[in-house]
Amino acid sequence: MPKGCKSCSSCGFCTGPRAYVCPKCNTPFTFKINNKDRKSHRLVKAFNWKELEPGDLIKINGGPYFMTKSGEYVPMGYRGKFSVHAVDENGILAWGKDKFAGIVYIYMGQDKFCEETGLNKTAHKILKFKRKENEERNSNRTLSA
After folding, report:
1. Three-point CA angle 99, 102, 104, nearest 5°
2. How does residue 86 score in pLDDT terms, banded at 50, 70 and 90?
3. Is 91 in the same domain as 116?
4. Which residues pair with 124 in a beta bridge?
5. 19 with 50, same domain?
């Protein structure tokens, strides 16, 4: 196979390296998800956000949004990785790790609508990064060897 080319698994057609679908048979190519932290961390979905401690790593999606008069959805919440600084009854104070470099307040309170601003306040969706244990990593190494 020439450089800069990948072949389809079903028909063998050679196409460009950035193609998502085979142009000949429309078979989608499979891609490996790149995550720098997948070797040392795992994501925890079910946990109580009020039990977060300073220094915990979290991943945030969703949150408050604004609906324009034409019905356009405008997200107002934060997205990405954050390091927890403090937790209070309505949210989390955290430092940004990716594109948000400063300190942010992540709203986690009850859903409500503000008449003055037209903002719909909803809680963010949170995933927690948990460091994998050394024993777990060592057992995986022995199984793969």
Report:
1. 95
2. very high
3. yes
4. 62
5. no
Phi, psi of 63 (to 5 degrees): 105, -165
User: 24 is written with which tokens?
Assistant: 């000949």
Report the alpha-carbon distance of residue 35 to residue 56 in Å, rounded. Answer: 18
67 touches 76 (CB < 8 A): no
**Spatial separation of the C-alpha atoms in residues 96 and 133, rounded to whole Å:** 25
Looking from the CA of 40 toward its CB, the CA atoms found within 13 Å total 3
pLDDT tens digits, one per residue of 21-46: 888 888 877 765 455 555 556 666 67
d(CA 83, CA 80): 10
User: Does residue 141 belong to any structural domain of this protein?
Assistant: no
Q: Are 86 and 93 in contact (CB under 8 A)?
A: yes
pTM attached to this predicted model: 0.59
> How is residue 13 annotated by DSSP?
-
Is 102 within 8 Å of 96 (Cβ atoms)?
yes
- DSSP H stretches of helix in the chain: 134-144
Choose among 100, 103, 99, 80: nearest CA to 91: 103
Q: Is 101 left (phi over 0), alpha (psi -120 to 50) or beta?
A: alpha
Structural domains counted in the chain:
2
